[in-house]
């Protein structure tokens, strides 16, 4: 199984119905990116090319190709071919035009490994699928919509959101792993490890293509560009902020690049609220999306203030204990927010949250107030790719 054998003129071969965004009704609906997301990214890439060309003309000399820069403006047919490319249909992942072009113009596609990376990536999917079927059977979401559910004791109502979110995660893990495997099978998104590619954005370092088949065969590749889910990171990172990094990773890059950076505010929390608002709109008009997504900025503000007020003052052992408590609360916050995401309607979401006394909202407000009272600093977006805090020292991966 090798990579794609496409050449630079093979755009028309890769046509398929366009990338659609889904509304959330079907149990396998993934809320994937759609054609507009691709075209927003392409417009930005074209703008970057024009800016680079103007700078080159003003300076009077060429600096050589920049990382990720397009060679020229794509034609209408090339734009349509990119928008209708079968790779990533339905479930994603999001990919830039530069990634698509590099795939088409891969000089030695047969040398790009795909079978072994695919098997390494695919092996946990059957287990996740079985766990999804089991958890969704034992703890059906429909039970929350019945009046009898609210006659259960408070601990039972509190507990129920845990298996609901567990089933939700397992479902997405299977679908996104399958989507990544589709890309890997086509050799799509493969870059040399030396390029240090990141999910969605592609290479961060200039890495010239191999000049011969032998060099291509000896090059080590990865598929980080189309990596859409880090299952371990999602489950075992400590904070709400880090959990967002590992979920729908290519779309997270798109949101950070085109929504977060253009937000009409400087504050990290307000920029995050702006991003979550538009992300909710992108998913659809169901009130549950907005209730869930707009709870995230409150959690970000609370954990940021409280962490800067407390954690830095603790001993190493105290920080480890803090991280365990933080992780537990992070998971419960995502359990809580997931209920709005799956119940969708305003009445059903508020009914469930009210039945557990809006516990996460109240806890976040108390934590925020305590952090402010103790002089905790304002949370800010990391400017460097520092490793997120994890509960284990040796990070296990699915691959």
Structure, explained:
There is one protein chain. By secondary structure, the chain is mostly helical. It has a domain at 230-376. Helices cover 54% and strands 1% of the residues. The chain contains 16 helices and two strands. It has helices spanning 35-59, 76-83, 97-104, 115-122, 125-138, 154-185, 213-218, 231-236, 240-245, 249-260, 268-283, 287-293, 296-310, 316-343, 346-355, 359-373, and strands spanning 191-192, 221-222. The radius of gyration is 23 Å and the shape is globular. It starts with 34 loop residues before the first helix and ends in a 26-residue tail after the last helix.
Descriptive labels:
16 helices; single chain; globular; disordered C terminus; 399 residues; two-stranded antiparallel ribbon; mainly alpha
Summarize the structure.
This protein has 399 residues and is an all-alpha fold.
What's the SSE blueprint?
Blueprint: H1 35-59, H2 76-83, H3 97-104, H4 115-122, H5 125-138, H6 154-185, E1 191-192, H7 213-218, E2 221-222, H8 231-236, H9 240-245, H10 249-260, H11 268-283, H12 287-293, H13 296-310, H14 316-343, H15 346-355, H16 359-373
Antiparallel strand pairs: 1-2
Helix pairs in contact: 4-6, 5-6, 6-14, 10-11, 11-12, 11-13, 12-14, 13-16, 14-15
InterPro entries: LPLAT_7/PORCN-like, MBOAT_fam
Main location: endoplasmic reticulum
Transmembrane segments: 268-283, 352-374
* Fraction of helical residues: 40-55%
Strand content: under 5%
- Helical segment tally? 16
Helix and strand content put the structural class at mainly alpha
Mean pLDDT: 85
Side by side, the strands of the main sheet go 1-2
Give the tally of β-strands.
2
């Amino acid at each position: 199984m090798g990579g794609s054998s496409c050449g630079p003129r093979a755009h028309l071969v890769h046509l398929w119905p366009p990338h659609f965004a889904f509304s959330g009704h079907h149990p396998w609906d993934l809320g994937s990116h759609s054609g507009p997301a691709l075209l927003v990214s392409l417009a930005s890439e074209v703008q970057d090319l024009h800016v680079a060309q103007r700078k080159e003309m003003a300076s009077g000399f060429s600096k050589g190709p920049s990382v990720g820069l397009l060679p020229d403006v794509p034609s209408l047919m090339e734009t349509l071919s990119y928008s209708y490319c079968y790779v990533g249909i339905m479930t994603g992942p999001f990919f830039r035009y530069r990634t698509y072009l590099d795939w088409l113009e891969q000089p030695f596609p047969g040398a790009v490994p795909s079978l072994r990376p695919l098997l390494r990536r695919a092996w946990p999917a059957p287990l996740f699928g079985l766990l999804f079927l089991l958890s969704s059977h034992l703890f059906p979401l429909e039970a929350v919509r019945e009046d009898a559910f609210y006659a259960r004791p408070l601990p039972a109502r509190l507990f129920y959101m845990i298996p609901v979110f567990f089933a939700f995660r397992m479902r997405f893990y299977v679908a996104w792993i399958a989507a990544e495997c589709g890309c890997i099978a086509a050799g799509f998104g493969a870059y040399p490890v030396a390029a240090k590619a990141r999910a969605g954005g592609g290479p961060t370092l200039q890495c010239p293509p191999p000049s011969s088949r032998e060099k291509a065969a000896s090059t080590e590749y990865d598929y980080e560009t189309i990596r859409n889910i880090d299952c371990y990171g999602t489950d075992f990172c400590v904070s709400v902020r880090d959990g967002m990094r590992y979920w729908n990773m290519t779309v997270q890059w798109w949101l950070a690049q085109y929504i977060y950076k253009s937000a009409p505010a400087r504050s990290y929390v307000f920029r995050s609220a702006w991003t979550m608002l538009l992300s909710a709109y992108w998913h659809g008009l169901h009130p549950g999306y907005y209730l869930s997504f707009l709870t995230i900025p409150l959690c970000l503000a609370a954990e940021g203030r409280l962490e800067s007020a407390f954690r830095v003052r603790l001993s190493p052992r105290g920080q480890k204990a803090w991280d365990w408590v933080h992780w537990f609360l992070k998971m419960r916050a995502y359990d809580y927010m997931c209920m709005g995401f799956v119940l969708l309607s305003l009445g059903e979401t508020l009914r469930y949250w009210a039945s557990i006394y809006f516990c996460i909202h109240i806890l976040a407000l108390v934590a925020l107030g305590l952090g402010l009272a103790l002089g905790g600093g304002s949370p800010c977006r990391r400017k460097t790719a520092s490793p997120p805090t994890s509960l284990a020292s040796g990070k296990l991966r699915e691959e």
